[in-house]
């Protein structure tokens, strides 16, 4: 099957197009089917030692956006749809080379907004999540940047569809934006007259799963025939060709399951952020290292046991039938399933020359991969005691069950994942050839661990304490719009402080039940330290 359509190619004067692939197509579908689900918002709090007047800041931001577009032209794409085989939709990106600097400035003004009103960081991020998103078929550029005042400083909110960028790619892109803005504030801006428009198309990137093969061989990978491709993403995350049945150990598994309870017709989402102090974050790192585990594995375990505990508590208040179903699942389930765990393949698989936006072959904005993890329920049952008559859940903080049972089984599940370039490619083939995700709205959780920005080299020169002469990045929040029953978590560390943002649809949880969950999550965290 030809891959030409998945590589940017000229279709008209100054117009370049390529089809979306894999997770790009999949997230276009989730946004269409589930009211914008998967749209991503990153909000950054910035302090300026010498803040320019608002009018000057608007001009500086637009200047920086023009520079950013020249470096990363994919941000100026629009997504559109064409008819596909058997009635399926083919989503695609379109980029138009500007013919003048005035045209580029017009684009910068179209995608940059200065909002009035002071809001704290999480409130602004939530408002962006609710109000500033769009469908993949809308005639809309693939990003908006909103700038708004804080009590001290300004906050910059970048909103993008997930088909265009992953969370880490957005933060990497914003790092370049603030580099450009800092240079402008310091009086050493790159002159826009020096930019050569038309050359930037060399940095329009292919899909992430194509990068390794393209970099190593110079040609794109061969797509398998969709009629012969059967890719099974098991708990091990391994892609298997030509397999006609699910492996026996997965067939035998019975997953913990909580029947969705529709709490109403509200279209709003519910989210809450847990912020750990630098002291607590250091303790989490120390105890994780002592037990030879990663922060992601430990937070996954804490989220899992908190969600099971809270699900039992909530079910007991819904109805006898709901409580019995959840309780039966607690006792009978053999495994706990997390069907979507994010891997950023950019740093793991791509050659060094494809790792950054200034690389010889620019890194793609979207390099997200997703795998299933499942692990035994028995350690969780060992840490929770149920009084059936009183409908009370009691905790038994058992360090052996937690570290040697739950966390170890999560680490084992991650260890079993096939993280090779071939598996990455095949997983995306499976998403590309699957139907629109109509059965995506389930009650299983999703986890995205973005990582430690310090270790990733993102915003390092703008951290508090670095005394940057132009600007300081005080805080970061990044979230995904969620309108499905799943509880979505985003794990991020900035300036030695870990944060976990949890979100779901308003039909799935209330503000009160979300607070109950985050309280229990924090209590379990304190218990293991």
UniProtKB/TrEMBL annotation:
The lineage of its organism: Eukaryota, Fungi, Dikarya, Basidiomycota, Agaricomycotina. This is Condensation domain-containing protein. InterPro entries: CAT-like_dom_sf (IPR023213).
